[in-house]
Amino acid sequence: MSEESSGRRNLRMPNDDEVFAVVTQHNGGNHVTVRCQDGKERMGRIPGRMKYRTWIQEGDVVLVEPWDWQDEKGNIEWRYSEQDAEQLRAEGHID
């Protein structure tokens, strides 16, 4: 069965130091508040390479890489489309 006929797409999965998160609040500029899969709320920073190309809104599913030196903050590494987020939910990767 091909990828197209099953409807399943290969999605970017988190590396060892990344976690799934849901954007709960847009704080203006390049900062958002995210609720991570590990149960923590973090301040997410949208890097310059994503800032104008990828619009991040409340409710979006993203990948966050927490900072080594300050665990309550992290960088947004990837944003999933609504279809990709539904697939992740269906496969049990996120709540």
UniProtKB/TrEMBL annotation:
- Please identify the protein, giving its name as recorded: Translation initiation factor 1A
User: What GO molecular function annotation could you give as one example from this UniProt entry?
Assistant: translation initiation factor activity
Q: Which domain of life is it from?
A: Archaea
Summarizing the function annotation, the protein's role is: Seems to be required for maximal rate of protein biosynthesis. Enhances ribosome dissociation into subunits and stabilizes the binding of the initiator Met-tRNA(I) to 40 S ribosomal subunits.
Nucleotidyltransferase in keyword set? no
Q: Which residues are the signal sequence here?
A: none
Protein family per UniProt = Belongs to the eIF-1A family.
**Which NCBIfam families has this protein been placed in?**
eIF-1A (TIGR00523), PRK04012.1-2 (NF003083), PRK04012.1-3 (NF003084), PRK04012.1-5 (NF003085)
Its keywords, alphabetically, are:
Initiation factor, Protein biosynthesis
Q: Could you tell me which species this protein originates from?
A: Halogeometricum luteum
The organism that produces this protein has a lineage beginning with: Archaea, Methanobacteriati, Methanobacteriota, Stenosarchaea group, Halobacteria
SMART domains attached here? eIF1a
UniProt xrefs under SUPFAM superfamilies: Nucleic acid-binding proteins (SSF50249)
Cite the S1-like domain residue spans from the record: 7-81
Q: Which InterPro entries match?
A: NA-bd_OB-fold, RNA-binding_domain_S1_IF1, TIF_eIF-1A, TIF_eIF-1A_CS
